Amino acid sequence: MNKDFNYSGLKLGIIGGGQLGKIMSQKAKKMGFNVTILDPTPNCPAAQVSDRQIIGGFYDKEKLTQIVNESDVTTFELEHIDTSVLKELYDAGHNIHPSPYVMELIQNKYEQKKLLDEKGIPVPAYKDVKNNDDLASFGFPVIQKAKLGGYDGKGVQMLKTPQDIQNCIKAESFIEELVDIDKELAIIVARNIEGEIKCYPVVEMLFDERVNICDSVMAPARVSKHIEQKAIDVSIDSIKALDGVGIFGVELFLTKKGEVLVNEIAPRPHNSGHYTVEACATSQFEQIIRAVTNLPLGSTKLISPAVMVNLLGEEGYEGEPFIEGIHEALDIPELSFHFYGKSVTKPFRKMGHITVLDDDINKALEKANKAKNILKIKGSKKV
């Protein structure tokens, strides 16, 4: 796409119709673009705010071909898709970003790690697993990861003792050393077709240890300028190594020794960047639209410190969602409430999030934790 392209009524295709696609679509509509969603669930969250939905699966070659053919630009809100037909369409000249080749590489966490390692990006020590003996290569405890299909804590197993091998992941996998983590950090990196790169602030991620899902995000991270710059440098190098176009969530480990290691990369808007909607000059969701349509990238300036908290489905409930505590929570100053419009809640399912602003990051965290204790997403049935 060149600068002479008529952006009036640009047709954008988004593969995936969850909460990320929903906010992407809202930002694209603000810019006057026409949005088509591909998702197997009728009236999925993104379809509720888009012009059209193609109902189809992410491995349906016919429907994937349809959305690409009907769009000026196609992008993604998830990585678990059939790349084979998309590679053919990309090679035939269709605008698909990130490219299906980048998506295919990132789908395989082992190949992703191997490429970063080969390009000199610091990563935890890792090893391919061909048999159970390989699981013991680094001693115990050790982290085992499925090569394909993992997300939100799924496909990751800690093996604490040799006895745990009997409970290991029974799919293609690799192991990683157990890193002595001080903090888990993340950065959203944007890169457009012309190679322009912009980084958002380094953020700190806090996890719900019950299911290893990101619970809260603090922006900016409570780290030194030296660590901040290290994190920015390795993140930019990672996206250059991938030759990626779009938005990338780079997850990082800060070790107790002060090393910054790349954990993994998501080739799409990322949970750690939700705070950007209220706290930054340009949100990650507008930024991906700019990047994949080859518009200049927007400012990533942090307007205010912020804390984002995921609203997960309450344990013990499923069915039609019921929001408990919304009146009391929205009484908290500078709190923004996002509900994704999913028709069914399940334990620990991401149902929405809140973002709280404050000039003092610690006060923002205090207000966010107060809201977290008030807001509960329950379901119509107890389980």
UniProtKB/TrEMBL annotation:
Residues 113-293 form the ATP-grasp domain. InterPro entries: ATP-grasp, ATP-grasp_carboxylate-amine, ATP_grasp_subdomain_1, PreATP-grasp_dom_sf, PurK, PurK_C, PurT/PurK_preATP-grasp, Rudment_hybrid_motif. ATP binds at residues 109, 145, 176-179, 184, 263-264. Pathway: Purine metabolism; IMP biosynthesis via de novo pathway; 5-amino-1-(5-phospho-D-ribosyl)imidazole-4-carboxylate from 5-amino-1-(5-phospho-D-ribosyl)imidazole (N5-CAIR route): step 1/2. It catalyses: 5-amino-1-(5-phospho-beta-D-ribosyl)imidazole + hydrogencarbonate + ATP = 5-carboxyamino-1-(5-phospho-D-ribosyl)imidazole + ADP + phosphate + 2 H(+). Keywords: ATP-binding, Decarboxylase, Ligase, Lyase, Nucleotide-binding, Purine biosynthesis. The keyword Ligase applies. Its EC number is 6.3.4.18. GO terms for molecular function: 5-(carboxyamino)imidazole ribonucleotide synthase activity; ATP binding; metal ion binding; phosphoribosylaminoimidazole carboxylase activity. PROSITE patterns: ATP_GRASP (PS50975). GO terms for cellular component: cytosol. Pfam families: ATP-grasp, PurK_C, RS_preATP-grasp-like. GO terms for biological process: 'de novo' IMP biosynthetic process. Catalyzes the ATP-dependent conversion of 5-aminoimidazole ribonucleotide (AIR) and HCO(3)- to N5-carboxyaminoimidazole ribonucleotide (N5-CAIR). Catalyzes the ATP-dependent conversion of 5-aminoimidazole ribonucleotide (AIR) and HCO(3)(-) to N5-carboxyaminoimidazole ribonucleotide (N5-CAIR). Homodimer. NCBIfam families: PRK06019.1-5, purK. Belongs to the PurK/PurT family. This is N5-carboxyaminoimidazole ribonucleotide synthase. It comes from Malaciobacter halophilus. The gene is purK.
